[in-house]
């Protein structure tokens, strides 16, 4: 396993474990999701450069665009829940109380 592939796999696993274990605040969950999306971007970039195909070079940019949209929507939801609930702690957010 080469160093870029190892760094991609470790970044992806660190993002997933951070999302699984550090679910105290909504901001930390969003940052872990952003880390996994960026590691997927790096992995797709490595994959498209290994094939050297021009048709595959558009896929990492598409993932990066969706990642930016996901981050913007997540931050907007975090601001909305902070304004309504007064905090961004995830244990205070319950769908049955809304």
UniProtKB/TrEMBL annotation:
Pfam families assigned: Oxidored_q2 (PF00420)
Gene3D superfamilies named among the record's database cross-references: 1.10.287.3510
Gene responsible for this protein: nadh4L
UniProt GO molecular function: NADH dehydrogenase (ubiquinone) activity; oxidoreductase activity, acting on NAD(P)H
Biological process annotations from GO: ATP synthesis coupled electron transport
Function: Core subunit of the mitochondrial membrane respiratory chain NADH dehydrogenase (Complex I) which catalyzes electron transfer from NADH through the respiratory chain, using ubiquinone as an electron acceptor. Part of the enzyme membrane arm which is embedded in the lipid bilayer and involved in proton translocation.
Protein name in UniProt: NADH-ubiquinone oxidoreductase chain 4L
An example Gene Ontology CC term for this record: NADH dehydrogenase complex
Keyword terms: Electron transport, Membrane, Mitochondrion, Mitochondrion inner membrane, NAD, Respiratory chain, Translocase, Transmembrane, Transmembrane helix, Transport, Ubiquinone
Subcellular location per the Swiss-Prot or TrEMBL entry: Mitochondrion inner membrane; Mitochondrion membrane
Catalytic activity entry: a ubiquinone + NADH + 5 H(+)(in) = a ubiquinol + NAD(+) + 4 H(+)(out)
Annotated source species: Pelobates cultripes (Western spadefoot toad)
InterPro entries documented for this protein: NADH_UbQ_OxRdtase_chain4L/K, NUOK/Mnh_C1-like
Membrane spanning stretches: 56-80
Bilayer topology: Multi-pass membrane protein
Family: Belongs to the complex I subunit 4L family.
């Amino acid at each position: 396993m080469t160093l870029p592939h190892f760094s991609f796999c470790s970044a992806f696993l660190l993002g997933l474990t951070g999302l699984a274990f550090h679910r105290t605040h909504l901001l930390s969950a969003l940052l872990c999701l952003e880390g996994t999306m960026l590691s997927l971007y790096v992995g797709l970039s490595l994959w498209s450069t290994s094939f050297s195909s021009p048709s595959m070079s558009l896929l990492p940019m598409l993932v990066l665009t969706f990642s930016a949209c996901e981050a913007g929507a997540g931050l907007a939801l975090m601001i909305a829940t902070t304004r309504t609930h007064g905090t961004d702690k995830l244990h205070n957010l319950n769908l049955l109380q809304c």
